[in-house]
Amino acid sequence: MTDMYGYEVKFERDCVDSRNPREQYGSWYKEYKNTFQSISRTREAPDVVSSLVLNAGDACFLVWAEYSDGDSFGNSVRSGVEVFGVFRSYMAANELKDFLEKVDAEQWYDKALELLTSDGQEFSISIPWADYFSELNEVHVTETTVIKIVDTEEDPE
Fold first, then answer.
1. Please, is 56 exposed, middle or buried when counting C-beta atoms within 10 Å of its C-beta (0-12, 13-18, 19+)?
2. What's the rounded Cα separation, in Å, for the pair 34 and 98?
3. Which of 67, 80, 113, 121 could form a disulfide with 125 if both were Cys (CB 3.0 to 4.6 A apart)?
4. What is the pLDDT of residues 27-71, one digit of tens each?
């Protein structure tokens, strides 16, 4: 079995527009702006796991997506953020990005998708926007650097 490593990913989330109904069940609308802040390796409650070992100062590419959600009365644009993978190679990160952009979410409601990227990473992905009121807004590949290693004993080689 391959060793897996957890990464904590932080985003800044700002509500840029909001309209609330006067009546209890009236139409509503919210829109968010999500900005990537940092990535750290952690052992506790990771946002994403990977077979890739990254240490503080290592460059990497993060694949994350923004999606909208809602209900019968309104929607919330870019309200959801999901991190899918971390890579050393832009090419492998872009493979995951392309894969996510091409998924027919309605087909994969309640199912996991399998993907093996060119760098050897295996993914079993559940699509959070595979819901009646949800939709994908954008998949990002962000180049960044690991800022720290949280709660470790010793760094793996």
1. middle
2. 20
3. 113
4. 999 999 999 999 999 988 999 999 999 999 999 999 999 999 999
